[in-house]
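user: Kindly work through both lines:
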Amino acid sequence: MFHRIITALAVLAAFGVAVGAQQPPARPLSPSGSTQAQVLGHWTKGDRPTFAVGQERYVEGKWLEVTYGRPALRGRDVFGSGANYGKALIDLPLGDFGPPPVWRAGANVTTRLNTEATLTLADKDKGKKVPTGEYSLFIDVKGPQDWTLIVSNWAAQARFDQKDKTALWGAYGYTPDKDVARVPMRVETLPYSVEQLTWAFLDMTPDSGSVAIMWGKTMARVSFKAETP
């Protein structure tokens, strides 16, 4: 009898292991993402055709890239309305930090811009120049039509460490003293809803375009001009 019980338990354990092995790996709630564009280059025909559309090569281009975390709506109203507009975007206190004063414009790690070209971000009065390099991006959301893109020299933490005062996790610890540019964004209502927060480069030309963030039925963007550093 004892032998049969041991055998049954062994079979159940093996069955549990087999079932567990079939479970898909857990996915993060906010997967990492990136968007890229290339500017200031040109297409040329070489001695050998390429597999690119038009069978040409794009040479001497400069890369632009935004890396960020991609939260999903999952049925939420993330922007709110009235006096509560934008408040849901600001995180709760974390460690010794209170709620950050600006939005990380993504999830988890700080949103980052890496540019190999010098960018002039459009403003109502004059453009704000952003030299080549890597920066953190934040958005100050004050109202439905009052968004400001912040390009900052704050470094980003790979993992949250409240003892590290030289880099940020998300927007915790953000201060404006490292701002490179603050530019008003054009905010628009989309005719459809974007489930995952998405950064994108829009209306690109060889030396200009817009960098945009879309989530839900809201899109905010800033136009830019690129030049060789």
In short: The longest strand covers residues 186-205.
